[in-house]
Every structure is written in C-alpha cells, then in structure tokens.
Amino acid sequence: MHLGGCFLLQALALLSLQSGAQKVEAPSDQVQVEVVHLPEECHQKSKKGDLLNAHYDGYLASDHSKFYCSRTQNDGHPKWFVLGVGQVIKGLDIAMLNMCPGEKRKVIIPPSLAYGKHGYDAAKIPPNATLIFEIELYAITKGPRSVEAFSDIDMDKDKQLSRDEIDLYLKKEFERDGKKRDPLHHENVLVDIFKKNDRDGDGFISAKEYNVYQHDEL
Ligand SMILES: *[C@@H]1O[C@H](CO)[C@@H](O)[C@H](O)[C@H]1NC(C)=O
Ligand SMILES: [Ca+2]
Ligand SMILES: [Ca+2]
To answer: By alpha-carbon position, which residue is closest to atom 8 of ligand 1?
Structure first.
C-alpha cells in the first residue's frame, strides 16, 4: 500500500514535468526522474555498489543557472563514482539507480537530498536550493562493493581485502571497460574506498566492514 502510493506520486510528478510546467516544486523528500533518452538495448542496469562513469550538469531550479558541469572539469573526462555510498549527494545516488548505459535523465532533487538548509558556498548553492541535474550515463562497472565481488577481490582468501587486492581488481575492471582513464582518478577511488570502509584503520577491509552498507538500502 505504502509502495503503491509512492509510485503514484512519482507518476504524477512525471506527468507534471511532461506537461511543461515552468515552476519547479519538488516534493520535499523525493527525487523526480524524467527519462530523456533510453537506449534500445539495455543489458545492465545500475545498482547500488556499481562503479559508474557519467557526465552530469547541475542547475539551480530557482533561476536555471548552471552551477556544475562535469564536462568542463577534469579535462572533460566523465566522472567515476561508486553509486549509493555517498560519494555524490544523496539525491544523485537515488536518481541514478536502475539506469542503462547510454541513458539520459533529467532529475529534480529537493534540498533535503542535496545541500540542505545551509547550501554549499564553494559551488554557490544557496540555502534550501532545489537542484536539477542532466545526467548521461556512459558505463557501469561492477563496483568493489557488490556482494558477489568480495571473494573475487580476495585473491589470497584470507577473508579481508588489502589495498593491493582492491587496486588490482579496479584495474581489471577498468581494462575490461576499455575506456581511457586518468590514473589519478583510480588512486582517488582507491583512497576513498578505504576512507569509507576501513573503519578500524588497520589497512584491510574485513568482510564485516565490507558489508556495512548492505543493510542500508536507499
Ligand atoms: C530553509 O528551510 C528551513 C526549514 O525548511 C527554514 O527554517 C530556513 O529558514 C530556510 N532558510 C532560508 C535561508 O530560506
Ligand atoms: Ca585478502
Ligand atoms: Ca579494517
């Protein structure tokens, strides 16, 4: 019953978007998703824990000014990030779920799932700002967080993941993906993975630490 209500709300939100409503008022705690382009073939959909490669532009809903453009950063390379673990704002973690490679979406994110009542000065986000993102997803790589991956990564089968093991795993995944990547980004992803997971700071990610997010579904 509760779920049904949710879907109905989403459907209504989509309808009002499509009818070309100019004034954008997002419900306070929901992300509105409009699929702008859906590729004909889709063999894989993004899920929590996947490593995504995407471009996204961010606009303020209030005046449609652009505050972020991944195309002008990092020499125009699409961004890599792990979905659903807080590497991006919560609204984007939600908005990019179940997306196909090649899919484009326009999403509206309420402040509660973005920068909240304080905003974010460095990116010039005012308080209580509703944000609009135009997203294009390029690639989905099975991320280091997927549950199936743990034993794949754990080469020496000691039930914990060393830095080298994760490093190697990421390299293999990126190679398979076939896209040229900045080594610095690889390093950043690696550092980030340890910062977020190695709770006791012993330099290894234990099975327990690895599973921290398993029960924290969005
Ligand atoms: C932002 O919203 C909060 C609660 O919704 C409100 O208390 C606060 O005054 C707002 N801030 C601004 C600058 O509008
Ligand atoms: Ca190991
Ligand atoms: Ca640890």
So the answer is: 117
Same domain? For 172 and 199 the reply is yes
Distances in Å between the Cα of 99 and the Cα atoms of 39, 122, 188 are: 10, 29, 24
Residue nearest to atom 12 of ligand 1 (CA): 127
Ligand nearest to the CA of 112: 1
Beta carbons of 47 and 82 less than 8 angstroms apart: no
CB atoms within 10 A of CB 134: 17
**Which pLDDT value is given to residue 216?**
41
Rounded-to-integer distance, Cα 197 and Cα 208, Å: 10
Number of the ligand 1 atom closest to the C-alpha atom of 127: 13
Residue 54: both structure tokens together = 């995407």
Q: What is the pLDDT of residue 186?
A: 81
116 C-alpha vs ligand 1 centroid, how far in Å? Answer: 9
- With a cut of 70, list the residues of the chain below it in pLDDT: 1-27, 74-76, 143-148, 177-181, 211-218
| Co-location of 154 and 136 in the same domain | no
- Distance, CA 149 to ligand 2 centroid (Å)? 12
Specify the 3-state DSSP secondary structure of 176. helix
Same domain, residue pair 108 and 174: no
Distances (CA, A) of 118 to 112, 114, 146, 170: 10, 10, 33, 35
Note the pTM of the prediction, 2 decimals.
Answer: 0.60
Question: According to the model, what pLDDT value does residue 71 have?
Answer: 74
> Which range marks the domain in which residue 168 is found?
149-213
